[in-house]
Amino acid sequence: MAQSPLINKRITGKPIATRTQKWQDDGHQETHANIRTQEFIVDLSSPSSIEDWLSLPELRPPHVASAIDKGSIYQVDAVGLLVVTVKSCKRKRVRPVMVTNGKCLLPTAEIKFGDETQHCRLPPDFSNWVVECMALNREGLNRLPGKVEFGILNGHAFGEFR
User: Fold this and answer.
1) Which residue in 116, 112, 117, 43 sits closest to 80, CA to CA?
2) Contact, 38 vs 145, CB < 8 A?
3) What is the rounded distance in angstroms from the CA atom of residue 130 to the CA atom of residue 108?
4) How far is CA 140 from CA 35, 65, 71, in A?
5) I want to staple 37 with a disulfide (CB 3.0 to 4.6 A). Which of 1, 15, 121, 134 is the partner?
6) Whether 127 contacts 55, CB under 8 Å
7) Per-residue pLDDT tens for 126-142?
8) Quick one: residue 101, left, alpha or beta (phi over 0 = left, psi -120 to 50 = alpha)?
9) Pairwise CA distance, residues 32 & 22, whole Å
10) What are 56-70's pLDDT values in tens digits?
């Protein structure tokens, strides 16, 4: 299985997005995009396959009864998306929320627990939120690292910056 080279640049003062690509034997490509601030960091702990994504600990946000109730608040250092084929999602029985051009977008986050940062998978319902974070990053409005409240209200996942 050939792997494309990772871009390894150091950029100071700008939020940027990193991207790695991995070619599978069946010719399908899986991509992981990860946003960070201040510098380009190659993170080898990022999942490169749906199996890697499934092996990450899953963040399980609480269900909240109303908009005034609080979800769980975490220090989030970075968010990312693993892009895999719809075929891979079906094979592993993962129901993605976002499918674009025959690809599934599976969200991840680097979350600080005490003094340790852990790479976690987010439920697929948070794909839209991660895409919004990446769009903000591209516009220079990155809020990460920062505190984020995660929850599920009326069946809809939400992430709000605190």
Assistant:
1) 43
2) no
3) 8
4) 12, 34, 27
5) 15
6) no
7) 999 999 998 888 888 88
8) left
9) 9
10) 999 999 999 988 899
DSSP single-letter state for residue 67: T
CA 146 to CA 74: how far, in whole Å? 8
The model's pTM is: 0.70
Tokens of 64: 């909240």
Residue with tokens 């998978």: 121
Domain ranges for the chain: 16-60+78-110+120-140
* Cis peptide upstream of residue 123 (ω within 30 degrees of 0): no
SS3 at position 108: strand
* CB neighbour list of residue 57: distance below 8 Å, 6 or more residues apart: 118, 120, 121
| Backbone φ and ψ of 39, nearest 5° | -150, 160
